[in-house]
């Protein structure tokens, strides 16, 4: 019996190693698709309750995700090329010259920072910064094919994860050496936190992007493109939307529209950064936690912030999904270990 089990284990490990090597290029994609399926599990469940057909519910959820992912990305890729080709480099010189004409006298309490500020302004090379930024914009077009391919594969795996996810979870529950209730603790914790994180990131990015698109359209810019860029920029912790409104203000200053630049800066700071991000975003998270997840969960916003920041730093764009997922899984396992220890002593 022991020889039979040893042989079966050896075969299983060999096949498992082969499977990992076979799908190694797609492991990240499969992980992202699975986490997105967990994040949208409750939405898919509600669609299933309406359609009474799990295939149709999975198709509708996949179409919605495709629209949210592909729509902004495709529009951005097609628009960036024309921006790079039509960029006015003389505007850079005007911004540089204008900055050197300003008087940067600091108030007495912080006068000790005057020398470092003067050095910074004198060494500021906007031409080089703009050239670097344009090179990044240009790389978007070069890397777009690979990025779109990955997104297409994510959508495909996402569909099958929704369609067969319950069967896979039930199978793992049956073969894992712990009770199904204990597996449910981990699965429920990760699913609920991922749902709150995913929906809050998505709705917050849409809200802030829409607000910035209004001010952009008002002053004659491509509001949709600015809104998409601002939505993505808002995902970056700390600096966030400043990546968008500071360059836009610099462009207006270069054209002599100082009042417009002040309006854009004030609007971005007060309406978007303070009102939308500080006051409305917590309400969005509370609504999602109360209405859109099966079991409300206590989300530590500071922990999620660091998890997203660490994820973006380590994994890039998709780190905003992987970071919170890995952190939540770790904390859930710690909670499960504590419960098992208490159960053992009892």
Automatic annotation (TrEMBL):
Q: Which InterPro entries match?
A: AI-2E-like
Q: What GO cellular-component annotations does this UniProt entry give?
A: membrane
* This protein's UniProt keywords: Membrane, Transmembrane, Transmembrane helix
Which membrane topology term applies here? Multi-pass membrane protein
Q: Which domain of life is it from?
A: Bacteria
According to the record, the segments passing through the membrane are 5-20, 56-77, 144-163, 196-221, 227-248, 260-284, 304-337
What are the subcellular locations of this protein? Answer: Membrane
Q: Which PANTHER family does the UniProt entry name for this protein?
A: TRANSMEMBRANE PROTEIN, TRANSMEMBRANE PROTEIN 245
Instruction: Give the similarity note.
Output: Belongs to the autoinducer-2 exporter (AI-2E) (TC 2.A.86) family.
What is the designated name of this protein?
Putative permease
User: Which species does this protein come from?
Assistant: Sulfurospirillum halorespirans DSM 13726
